[in-house]
Predict the structure of S-adenosyl-L-methionine-dependent methyltransferase.
Amino acid sequence: MLLLGVRSRLDLATTTQLYRLLPVRLARRSLHPQPKYVAGPFVGLSHLKRRMAETPSVGEVRAPSPPSDAPAAKKPRLQAHKGAPASDKARSLSKSQKRRAQYNSLPEPCSADDVLWREINDVLGEDYVNNALAEGTDRQSPFVYHQELELQVVALCSTGSALATSSESSRPWVVVVPFSLPGETIRAKVYRNARMHSFADLIEVVAPNPELRDDSLVQCKYFATCGGCQYQMLSYEKQLDLKRDVVVKAYKNYSNLPETAIPAIESTMPSPKQYNYRTKITPHFEAPTKAQRVDPNNPANDTEQPKWLNIGFNRVGTHKVMDIEDCPIATPIIRETLPAVRANVVKNLYTYKRGVSLILRDSLPPVASATAEGAADTVSTEPETHVCITDHRGTVREKIGSWVFEYPNSSFFQNNNSVLPSLTDYVQSSIFGEPTDGRPKPTHLVDAYCGAGLFAITLSPHFTTVAGIELSQESIRAAKHNAELNYIPATKISFRAGDAADIFRTGCDEPFIKQLLAFRAQTVVYVSCNVHTQARDVGMVLKGSGEDGRGKYVLESLRGFDLFPQTAHVESVAVLRLVQEAS
Ligand SMILES: C[S@@+](CC[C@H](N)C(=O)[O-])C[C@H]1O[C@@H](n2cnc3c(N)ncnc32)[C@H](O)[C@@H]1O
């Protein structure tokens, strides 16, 4: 999932009490929050400058010495995770103040940097890190830019990178290196120093860990260069185990719950397809610079790709696009179509004034009258043909089990069709529990952040009424259309464009907790692409519930779903149950 803004979904099986709160006000706020990092062309910058311009680590050292206005010697101990998030504070600051604030502060809670920081703390020990912070030695890297090191990998971070240490180091320090595994000895080259850690490129695996690594499994020639996949050298079972560990660590580090409140985390639900599963890819390229437009060495014809032109994905650890001709995790039709799409870019290259993000989506062929033929498709015994939709304004059509969905190519839909039936079935069975458990069965479903209606529609047969809420008008139009396509009557299902914050605030502040608790939904199923913010939110819900004697939520189950095999990403499903009714 493209970085960049954390999105999570609350799918609620609830009581009429909650349902009555709809309709909600139409959202006035902007649909897409400003992404923290914007990928795009970095015309005219050298590789080094791009590296230095990256923002992967809050407070990272961008130059060998600290900024001149940074405190020199002894610093007070930094307070982690207190006060407003760095981004809120940063708004009113000048550039240099921002830089200094960033340099001095610890990462924003739950950000990718924070996840890394906490796991670095686990490796080095919190006392050691706290001492270094108090003494102001937390940025005194024992390594210099471009130093080559032999390292021992001690852990795998939830981000997918390895955390390694060096016996050559004058003091404990972590080096973050991609494509390496615990138990391995590696050689790596430092490219940036940060607080208590450095980032390095992998040069060589000197002593592999044969219990984990099997390089014969790698199916992509770009693996270990492209930033897309992290785990192709691992068996699929190991990948699933690692993703379970990520859920375990997230709840340990972020939920603030006692161990007894966290259920045994179930094994990660596998994806039926481990390659050829991605139904959408978005390769990008930079437009020619002025100099490139007039360069006599550029090919005069429109079929030869200039050497400087890269159409693909970001090189690992950078924002630099690398040329990618094939992507084995994408579906067959996308892989077949990619060469033609690339050739078309070359043909029209000098018409582009700025960088472009292409889109290739796997789709069933369009039908003349979707509404009339939607359900007819579901009984067809013909093998399905697929097409690739490359027009951003095109319509994509896909099936999840026997359900048909259509949505605009440019809007959100989950990218691994093969695992979605397991996901929706799991959510359904989690809501309803065992037939013999004696619990009253919910009759109303609210699907907050409903997108094109995936959960609302697939779960609709099990509820009396279903309501979906979603910020994007475009997705709401698609959701309504999908309800018709699947013959779900408007008396049963409704979709409204609006801000879910109008019924549930998206933050983890007190009003959110209070509202959620006041609704007293019987079951809350929280499906999230960010297990860290999910752990934080679930912790707050559990802590806030039961205080007024109006029912207490327990965390009944936790399970990761593998929506993106070969990558470090895990989707997490938390099931919260109201266990005590009002007295
Ligand atoms: C990750 S998608 C999930 C969509 C759907 N539940 C699914 O699984 O296909 C998250 C959705 O939340 C929507 N969204 C983001 N912020 C929202 C808000 N404040 N209120 C309502 N919807 C929001 C986005 O437009 C996006 O469609």
Summary: Residues 1-86, 369-379 have pLDDT under 50 and may be disordered. The pocket of S-adenosylmethionine is lined by residues 7, 9, 412-414, 449-451, 454-455, 469-472, 475, 499-501, 506 (CB under 6 Å).
